[in-house]
Amino acid sequence: MPEFTSRRGLLFGAAAVSAGAVLTGCTSNESKDDDSSEDNKQAVADDKPGKEVTIGFAGPQADHGWLNAINDNAKERAKKYKDVTLEATEGSNDTAAQIGQVETLINKKVDVLVILPADGKALTQVGLKAMKAGIPVVNLDRIFASAQAYRCWIGGDNYGMGLNAGHYIGEKLKGKKNAKVIELAGLDNLELTKQRTKGFDDALKNYSNIEKVARQAAEFTVESGQSKMSQLLQAQKNFDALWNHDDDQGVGALRAIKQAGRDDFLMVGGAGALSAFEEIKQDRGVLKATVLYPPTMAASAIDLARALGQGKGISGMSEFEIPSSVTLYSAVVDKDNVDQYMSTGFK
């Protein structure tokens, strides 16, 4: 099969026209009717060494526990595969610097790119450039402005985070009359924060006995979490539950709560930090659960990139190609299942 057809022609715009037909054509011309299962196995990526793949990884600056975990998950996953070489850039939150880093990876002719953009809209053009050059892009979490800029998107479900946090709190308070809840959000200028709040509000609509009486935006940092939580505690003398969007800022929120001597409500966190898991496991404070936004998505992005580089699909699915998008589930972790998730907690 000509190189133009198998790579550039399929990737640019053929992210929209799935590569399945081509893969089927390449792998099944010699197949026999009674041997289709073997052909399917060959078309699915597994842990056995196969075609060597160089993956370029352009991640964020690790200035937050979750972002650091993204970088660690990608690098550790790549080490698992003998057929994968990872070309990782120095993480950056500066869009111009990150664009330059991705362009360097394009010039190196890596086989696949995994990009968590500092700004999805700002990096869309360099994603398009990679796709036009025949380099498939796995867009991690912060989405590009055009679906033509990536072959596959994988990320978390911000609306689902809020929805599941709201339902967990709702079920805990459904027998209480005139229940009151408050919300410690993240940065209000981010779409993800708006989605988390919308999901939370939509869930609470199912519980007529619950009213959200206060909301305060923090900045995803320990310091802001402590400061904003102190303000909420001073303004709200009586409430039954708190949802905090982010476990990093939750460290500060818990400090403020302990300093205020408050233990008269339940708290639900967000993201899945190790410190939150440990606090939940001890079950001695207000933090009773956290809703995941798993940084393991970066490890899965490497799996998807490897499958793309080898022209294969993924195990557990019938298709000969990877999906165009994967939205992760925001599971609720509490004392009943925290041991299961402890190894995924980030510092």
From TrEMBL:
Annotated source species: Streptomyces aurantiacus JA 4570
Subcellular location: Cell envelope
PANTHER family: D-ALLOSE-BINDING PERIPLASMIC PROTEIN-RELATED
Domain (Periplasmic binding protein) ranges: 55-312
Region: Disordered, residue numbers: 27-52
Keyword Membrane assigned: no
GO molecular function: carbohydrate binding
Cited Pfam families: Peripla_BP_4 (PF13407)
Keyword terms: Signal
Family designation: Belongs to the bacterial solute-binding protein 2 family.
Gene3D superfamilies: 3.40.50.2300
InterPro entries: Peripla_BP_I, SBP_2_dom, TAT_signal
GO cellular component, one term: cell envelope
Protein name as annotated: Putative D-ribose-binding protein
Sequence ranges of Basic and acidic residues compositional bias: 38-51
Domain of life assignment: Bacteria
